[in-house]
């Protein structure tokens, strides 16, 4: 991304698009009963509360009545329909793993099969986005969950700790290519969840080959455990590499989330909050998704940035937009054109 002398002036920045992930699939409801919804009505109401607090993107997972993450597409359809009716302007972003909770004590925490994840392109009502990972990688969410963070929660159980420590994100080239094809055919926008520069480079190669022709909405994930660690230099290196025409959201976990989100807000980027990322504040006290949104809104206002409405967020994310050619895609996302046969030097943007 390019930064000019006035790029840090709030009047030259897009409005803030706040993503909230309030369904916390790695936790059990008893870990934070005040804020982890279980019934369908509670899950819909959680979306309403988050929208009214200022979040315009809902990262969506679903629970069964026993509190475990649901793997039933019918439950996703039900929740999407309820949210769509209650807050029609909110961008619905389905978590592409569906649910990675272990089925029982001691079992591995697994993402669903390729075939099942492909079926996210057939959800009805249709979500606005589905998150898509690039490149298979370790996702050890326990690596930075220090003992004091999980004390008194289900993740303090050694069996659950072992299950989540061994989790991987399956996102090989054949699956990603097919998944993007299906999502685009159903006019569902992928939101790319990127674990570092290597993941972005693979995505750029796919764009240059014409395997994806649409807006680049990216999230940099600094959670360690196989992903980039929550080091500001990792974040800045990533920012420096991504193209000018993408949107970029910061995602981290626990006490790293607030400082990295504040950096993102100051630089004109976007934040993600919610109990999927932290259930405590900087003082170690329980911190609800709505409280996290309210804090983010306050910081944004202190920095002079306005919060996007649902309709404004749709324009910023270019929801529903696709491009016809590789050249259009590169230009719209602020990327240099592909090299033409025999062309010397660096291909220049028109």
UniProtKB/TrEMBL annotation:
<dbReference type="InterPro" id="IPR008567">
    <property type="entry name" value="BKACE"/>
</dbReference>
<keyword id="KW-0862">Zinc</keyword>
<dbReference type="GO" id="GO:0043720">
    <property type="term" value="F:3-keto-5-aminohexanoate cleavage activity"/>
</dbReference>
<protein>
    <submittedName>
        <fullName>Uncharacterized conserved protein, DUF849 family</fullName>
    </submittedName>
</protein>
<dbReference type="Pfam" id="PF05853">
    <property type="entry name" value="BKACE"/>
</dbReference>
<dbReference type="InterPro" id="IPR013785">
    <property type="entry name" value="Aldolase_TIM"/>
</dbReference>
<keyword id="KW-0479">Metal-binding</keyword>
<dbReference type="GO" id="GO:0046872">
    <property type="term" value="F:metal ion binding"/>
</dbReference>
<keyword id="KW-0808">Transferase</keyword>
């Amino acid at each position: 991304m390019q930064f000019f002398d006035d790029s840090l002036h709030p009047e030259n920045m897009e409005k803030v698009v706040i993503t909230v992930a309030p369904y916390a699939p790695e936790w059990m409801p008893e870990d934070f009963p005040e804020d982890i919804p279980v019934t369908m009505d509670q899950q819909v109401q959680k979306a309403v509360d988050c929208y009214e607090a200022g979040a315009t993107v809902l990262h969506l997972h679903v629970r069964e009545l026993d509190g475990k993450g649901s793997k039933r597409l019918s439950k996703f359809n039900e929740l999407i329909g309820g949210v769509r009716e209650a807050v029609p302007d909110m961008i619905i972003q389905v978590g592409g793993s569906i649910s990675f909770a272990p089925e029982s004590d001691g079992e591995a925490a697994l993402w669903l099969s390729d075939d099942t994840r492909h079926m996210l392109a057939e959800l009805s009502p249709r979500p606005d986005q589905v998150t898509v990972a690039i490149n298979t990688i370790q996702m050890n969410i326990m690596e930075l969950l220090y003992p004091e963070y999980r004390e008194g929660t289900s993740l303090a159980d050694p069996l659950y700790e072992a299950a989540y420590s061994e989790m991987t994100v399956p996102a090989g080239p054949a699956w990603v290519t097919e998944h993007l094809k299906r999502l685009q055919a159903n006019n569902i926008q992928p939101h790319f969840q990127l674990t570092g520069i290597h993941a972005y480079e693979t995505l750029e190669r796919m764009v240059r080959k014409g395997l994806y022709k649409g807006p680049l909405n990216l999230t940099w994930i600094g959670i360690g455990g196989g992903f980039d660690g929550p080091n500001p230099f990792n974040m800045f290196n990533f920012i420096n590499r991504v193209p000018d025409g993408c949107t970029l959201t910061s995602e981290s976990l626990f006490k790293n989330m607030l400082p990295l989100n504040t950096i993102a807000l100051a630089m004109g980027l976007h934040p993600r909050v919610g109990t999927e990322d932290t259930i405590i504040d900087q003082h170690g006290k329980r911190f609800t998704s709505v409280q996290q949104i309210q804090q983010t809104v306050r910081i944004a206002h202190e920095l002079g940035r306005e919060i996007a409405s649902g309709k404004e967020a749709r324009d910023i994310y270019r929801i529903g937009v696709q491009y016809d050619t590789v050249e259009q895609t590169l230009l719209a996302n602020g990327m240099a054109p592909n090299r033409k046969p025999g062309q010397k030097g660096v291909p220049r943007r028109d």
